[in-house]
Predict the 3D structure of the following.
Amino acid sequence: MKVSNWGMYPSTEAEVRSFATADEAAQSLNDWQELIPRGLGRCYGDSSLSSHILSTLKFNRFLHFDREQGVLRCQSGLSFDEILKVIVPAGWFLPVTPGTKFVTLGGAIAADVHGKNHHSEGSFSTHLQTLTLLAPGGRVYVCSRTEHPEIFWATIGGMGLTGVILEGTFKLKKIETAYIVEESTKTKNVDELYRLFEQSMHFTYSVAWIDCLAKGKNLGKGILLNGEHAKVADLTKDAQRNAPLTLPKKLKLSVPFKLPSFTINRLTVKAFNTAFYAKAKSGLHQHVVDYDKYFYPLDGIVGWNRVYGKKGFAQYQFALPPERSYDGMVKILEEISKAGMPSFVSVLKYFGKSETGPLSFPMEGYMLALDFPITDRLFGFLDRLDAIVVDCGGRIYLTKDSRMKPEILQKGYPRLPEFLKIKAELDGGRVMQSLQSKRLGI
C-alpha cells in the first residue's frame, strides 16, 4: 500500500503489519529483513517510512495510572489524545506536548518531543521514568537513567532505529482546570520579539507566531503568546467554573480533499499574515482559553495538511545556540523574505538546558518551525538555510526532515558516533531502517 506521513512527501509502497502483543512484534522482527515502527504518522517526513512498516496503533492499552502521584504507564501505540481524555478529568496534564495531540507515546519518545515549555520544563524525556524496548533479535530491555542508561538515551530521540518501543512510564503535571491563562503581545519586529522573549522566561509556556514574509524594519514581526495553567479562581464563566476539568464541545472544521497545489503561495500567505497580524490588538492582552486552543490550534481542522495540495509540504525546523541565535535568525528571515518563500505556519520557541539523547533535537537556544509547500525550487532554498544553520552551530529536527543531506546531520549532531555505536550493538543486522536513515547513513 502507498504510505506517506503528515507532510504527504515523500510517499512509498510498503507492507504494513500491526501487532497487539510483544510476541507478534517480535515475529515481525524475525520475518522482515528491515522495518520501522510507525504510530500516527505525524512526523511529517520519511522517518517512519520503509518498505516494511510495523504499526503500533493496536498496541494501545493503559497499563497503570497512579492518580495520587500522577504517574502513567501505557503501551506505545496509545495517543496523547486518548491519554488526555483520561488524565485531564482526573486533574492531570501531559508534562510536555507538541503542537498536536495526535501522536503516540512511542512516537513522542522516539522523537523526544518538545513543547512550549522547554525553557522551563525540558523535553518529554525529562519526565520519562522508564521505557521498554524490543530490540532486533527478540531481547526486551527495561530501560531508565540507571538501568541500561545507554539504551534509554539512544532510544529517546532515536527515531525508532534502536528497536520497537513497547511501553513507557512518565510523570504527569497536576492541574486545577482544563484552561490556560494566555497573555498575548503584538511585536513590531524580530528585535522587539527577542527582547520580549527574554523577559518572558518566567512563564511556563511561551511561543510566538512570526510573519516570515515581512521585510525591512518589520522583519520578524509577530505575536508572542505566554501561558500558565489556569486555576479555578481564574475562570470567568459559570460554565467553566461548574466543570473546570471538562472542555466544551466544539464543532470541527474539515478540509475534505486536497486543494490545488498553488493554493499556498506568496500572495495567499502574505494576505493571511497581514489579516492575522492586523486582527491582533496592540499592547498586552490576557484571556482564558481551553487547552485545545492554546496547545493544539490546528487539531481543530481535520486534514489541514490537504491545503498544500497533492505535492505536499516540508516542515523545516531548526535550533540555534544562544550566542548565534539572533544573527542566524535574522539571516534566515532575510533569506526567506528575499526569496518570497511562503510559510503558512511559522513558530518560534526557546529551548532551555536539559539532558538529552545523542539524537535528541532540543539544544539551548531559539527554535523556528516553518511549513513550505513542495515546489521545484524549495530544496535548493532549504540547502541555503542549512548552510546558515550549521554555520551558527545549529541543527535540523529529524522528526520533521524529508531532505537533509548526511553532512548536515553530522555537523548538527556531534554525538552521532555515540548513537551509531549503540545501534550497532543492538541491531548488528541493521533490521531497523527507514527511508530517512538510509538517506542519512544512520
About this structure: The chain has a mean pLDDT of 94. The first strand starts at residue 2 and ends at 4.
